[in-house]
Design goal:
With 741 residues, the protein is an all-beta fold. The protein has no helices and 60 strands.
Amino acid sequence: MPPSPLSRRTVLAGTAAAAALTAAPSSHGRAEAADSTGAAPAYRWRTAVIGGTGFVTGVLFHPTVRGLAYARTDIGGAYRWDDRAARWTPLTDHLGWDDWNLLGVEALAVDPAHPDRLYLALGTYAQSWAGNGAILCSEDRGATWTRTDLTVKLGANEDGRGAGERLLVDPRDSDTLWLGTRHDGLLKSTDRGATWTAVSAFPGTPTAAGQGVTLLVAAGRALYAGWGDSDGTAGSPRLFRTTDGTTWEAVPGQPSGTSAKVPVRAAWDRHTRELYVTYADAPGPNGQSDGSVHKLATTSGRWTDVTPAEPGGTTSDGSADTFGYGGVAVDARRPGTLVVSTNNRWAAVDTLYRTTDGGRTWTSLKDSAVLDVSETPFLTFGADRPKFGWWIQAVAVDPYDSRHVVYGTGATLYGTRDLRHWAPQVRGLEETSVRQLISPPAGEAHLISGLGDVGVMYHERLTASPSRGMATNPVFGSATGLAQAAAEPSYVVRTGWGDHGNGARSHDGGRTWAPFAAQPALAKDAPGPIAVNADAGVLLWTFVHWDGTRYPAHRSADDGATWTEVPSFPKGATPLADPVDPARFYAYDTDTGTLYASTDSGRTFTARATGLPSGDSQFQLAAAPGRSGDLWLSAKWNGLYRSTDGGATFTKVTSCWASYTLAFGKAADGADYPAVYQVGSTDAITAVYRSDDAAKTWVRINDDRHQWGWIGAAIAADPRIHGRVYIATNGRGIQYGEPVR
């Protein structure tokens, strides 16, 4: 029996803590932020445009409101589509540091009888170290929310995240909701999500490693639930139903072979009274090699195999054509017309299949597709042309326009209005996981970013996706390092995971790149962060495997042509160059709480200050620009420390009790020290702060509507514009704010 999911109802209204949910969240807006030291500046927050870049796991058109749709992502929250403006509005930016696990959206649901009502099931991970899930309910399309905290965990960024939807409004009673969980069975609420109870009559038995309920769908007045946990026996049911909302049974006559597959998604054609179900041999998005599509005539109980193409063939180059099936969407206007997607089809590339005769014949929409990615050029991933897509599990057909089809991929959301011409339909939707940020002191671009999955980008404008796309020569997946020479800002280096090299340098400020002429053998499997000294003469590259194993750093004094090991450098530490003295480098050993320094251009390192906070790998060491030896250490909940003697001694900064990441920007008018920015805590809340007096006092510059979950990876401040700061988020791209002038 699963644990009782009875939850407390948190009505967010009328309090400071509730401010996060009482104003419409958006990708831009003014921040009238509270602060701990006096009047706070009014800030405007916007999203630096890249365009998608993450896995869109679900898209849902409202069945009774023209032009209204919602999208969910695995780590970047939920969005509402405004058809008139042709853009998405983020709905969950109000979720703060403590609620980082709620930025993953497991499922969403709308109420056909109440057009303004929206529900979200939130929870990124179901692991023991993650928090429990929550339900958000809105009566105004996501402008304001009421929250219910669950006592069970959800898994929006785990295997099976493209399945669903797992949340459903009962078509017979708008007050009744159903929620399918991964490890706690089926839950039911009869008060619009205020309280939840386990459905003891549901026949599925969860397993620790299984998927639980993978989908919920209404077919008339009946409800169907997909089941992702097999008991290992032939004929094990994967689809259950209820016709009275009380008793559940296995759907009779389920097709042979489906007991070994996971039902991924389902859609009901109300005209023909047929339920279409897609299956795969794994929950996806990875790991699928077989799949099928079946339909059930709900009035007669007859099943029909309507699989468009059988997995397991061979492509023209001899590769195995293996894949599963993912998304399915029925055309509400045309009986027997629907679209399904393949998934994990790497050899032949995934496609959408469309039928107009109930699955007797199918057409591959990829075969005639014309893709236009000019608005988000990174989608070519360094190739001549973009792929039709991968990780396609979210598919939707506009109920008011049969030729308006959208589908999500691992990097964007494509849409068409004529079934032939496709382009990203992704304005306003930014899901990048950001790793590094640089704001150059000179040149065309005010920002260079190092990103998860899509490498490094040069932002010549903040309001449009970088025209060069992701950095090439070579192409990286995720960036692991990004650095600029303080006295020679035209020289930039980057490192990351790549198939054709793991390090590159630029001599034009990051516009164009060339790979290092050579790289240490460690770079292939453990590329880590990199530093370049002030005059661009020396590189220090450290190596960290994805499993956490740390290796010695390597040094190059010839632009990456040759490398030598630096045995005295603390393994795995992030190197930092002094911004003035080319001979000085620094590194912080988080295991021992020791600051190491080099005065011979990185050849040797010796210990300086000891006894500093230790035991966590996410401490950040930063250097104030234009000053030699002026070091700052962000020590998370241990606070902030400063050294003015090159790391020989440190003094704790008493104005804040927690500091997670730190940056320096242009000084305020009349100030003699750069503006200091941090993600940290000066009072009770973790937020974004600015100090114009060398950290003696702080003002909070974000507000409760603009929090973006966990924002501890990186922060950068503009050296040319006082007050402008760039925030790296873990799933909401790059947020930047500046004072309203």
